[in-house]
Amino acid sequence: MKMVKSNLNKIINLLVFFVSVTIYSQKVNLIIFINDEIITSPVGLEFYNKNFTNKYKYTYSPGKEIDINTNDIFKENMILQFNAYGNKENPTKLYSYNISLESGLFKDTSFLIIKIYNLDQKEYKKKYCRSKELYIVDFHKSGLHIDTGICK
Prior knowledge:
The protein is built from 2 helices and 10 strands, in the order H-E-E-E-E-E-E-E-E-H-E-E. It is of the alpha+beta class. It is globular and about 40 Å long.
């Protein structure tokens, strides 16, 4: 009887451990659109803290989750840097992006959608008011939509 209780206690302890790890592990599905087209090919992303002293490299592909608990960089404001090639009109043009991200964007959500609009494209230059910038970024996550200014 003692052995059964001992084994039962071990099993319960293991279950509690795995349940607590599952509960406290938060994964976020990152989806990136550029000029209303989803990026479907793998892209190397680099997340930096504001001082560029901490870096987290991640290979993006749609549907691949980021475990934000594996790196402390997701607990602070950061910069997302990556390069992506053109669009339908100019597929060989290389665009470089440096996007400021607040740490709260990754909290309490199962997904984060980043929509980037290049303002060298006529349709987006007319649509967005901040034409002095090279690109505009919108964020969407569970219960939140951060939209940039659209011209009236």
